[in-house]
Specification:
By secondary structure, the protein is mainly beta. It is built from one helix and 15 strands, in the order H-E-E-E-E-E-E-E-E-E-E-E-E-E-E-E. It has a twelve-stranded antiparallel beta barrel. It has a two-stranded antiparallel ribbon with strand order 7-8.
Length: 275
Amino acid sequence: MKNKFILLVIIITSNLLAQSTVNFFPSKLNVHPFTANFLEPKLGFLFHFSKNDLRLDIGNSLDILHIENAEQEIISIGADLFTYSLLRGEEKFHFPVDAIDYLFGLNASYKRIKENYEYGFRFRLSHISAHFVDGHYDGPNQQWRGMVNPIVYSREFIELMPFYTFNSFRVYAGITFIFHIDPAELGKTDFQIGCDYFLNEIFSNSCVPFFAYDLKLNKIDKYAANNTLMAGLKFGKPFSKGFKLYFQYYSGKNFHGEYYYENKKYFSFGLNLDL
């Protein structure tokens, strides 16, 4: 019975592949990054208005293959590799790195394209670790800044993010299951909803205003809300490569793992290359 089932799966899979086009290393992502979600590929800076801090993000997601059929269904498999760095501005144009978070993992997605809407989901299997860097060390006093010592912060998780897009308005909802985490006091299930909306082009067809919102619930002692609200301009097509200038408001827990217990609230200005 087991062998018959395996054979049936092989036959169905072979039939699907025979009717589909397989494209290795396609030029764009099957599912474009969710704009206000923190854990997305970013390449740019975020300048805080209230403190002399800035964030440097260097990361990318790459689809390794697309499988597409005549019904405009696309399945993808890809990889993620991100870094999120917390920098501090000092005199003489120095920007010591205080903390850095790393994410790497695999992803898969499914998307069905219709005339003016599309739907699908993205799945991730990822690892995150967080570290203090030499900019957090007070050399003259031979101690960590603010007497905040490094901790072990690491988590491995799976994430499922379904979405629905109508014209240029997209909504999504997600759930994250964390199967290993340090410190152990942190919760193992996160919930998330959000949206992004790209308006019609205002300068020829290459400058697009956008708005985005993300709400994420994660647990330390109890569930807390993390809110991200963004508004700005995208130079380029809405869900494609380009350049963003935007304002952002954030309230919630510090998303840098070494400071996971801190409450943060700030306005910032950002610029980002969408690869």
